[in-house]
Design brief:
Order of helices and strands: EHEEEEHEEHEEEEHEEEHEHHH
Number of strands: 15
Strand content: 25-35%
Number of helices: 8
Distance between the termini: 80 Å
Structural class: alpha+beta
Amino acid sequence: MKKRIISLALSAVTAISAVSAMSTSAIDYWGTLDEKVIEETFKDAIKLEDYEWIVGWAGSQKSSDFVYMTTSEDSYVDIYKLNRMDDSISFDIDSDTDISELEKQIKALDESFKMYTSKAENNKIRIFIKTKEISLENAKKIREIAGGNVSDFICELNMYTYLNVNVDYMTGYSTYKTTYDENDEFIKEPTEEILREYVEAHSEDVEFAAYSLGETDFRGVNINGYTNYIIPKKELTAMEHFELARDIYDETGLFPVGYTLDSINPPLGSTLNLTDYLNGDANCDKSATMADAAAILQAIGNPDKYALSDQGKFNADYAGDGLTADDAIAIQKKIAGIE
């Protein structure tokens, strides 16, 4: 009889500032990422605090900034791992630019800035700037330092690498554990006896099952290879099953199998194109109007409800000292023709 082992009801998760919603198999777009947005995006998922034991199993980094687990109808578990990347700025500049002076001015803003160069097309030099965090104010100052003879000026903020792993069944195990001996020779160690010993020690809670290639397992799933299962005798939640897999690993040293690395996705976050931008264009509609002044005041008064995008914040910051009411006043003066 088919058993439903993992049960976790998830409501639809709506991403903040997103054009399309997150599913348990992909995240299409999140807009500007920060910890608050990530927490909101995964509010109906399980946040994993104890996950480092799965390194080497699910293609995971040993440590991650955020790890979440969800379930869905077509797969037992999806694990999402996010790691914060350094912020960066890159642009092309004329080859006759005094690079040492440029670097001096940039590092005067923040000593943590690391600057690299490489050759670019059309007799240009490619500039790369990296550090843990670049404020919008410093991004604007670097844009001003670079001057008018630049192209492809890109600023990437709050970027996260994003790894999605689909786990077919949390306590399914390969028939063999693959290792290397002292001579680096590849060897295969049988796992069935080890797993049976675990089941015998926990016979009140779990049972053992083994399937061969071409057979159908207890879930009605066709087996692609020889697989051993430790099956709970009662229905477990996703978190309880995750903890069971951790307990089996602690006692046997064996990792589950049956996972699929869905993708190592392009970084997610906020990418600003600062080659050409319009001062005051808070709503990013390619014009500076009273609507932008209103958007700035709303964002200042109620940032949770009327948050601007990073590009909008950059555009709206007239003085390069952060978003203030003075920026809204500057837009109004410009519209009125007041210097």
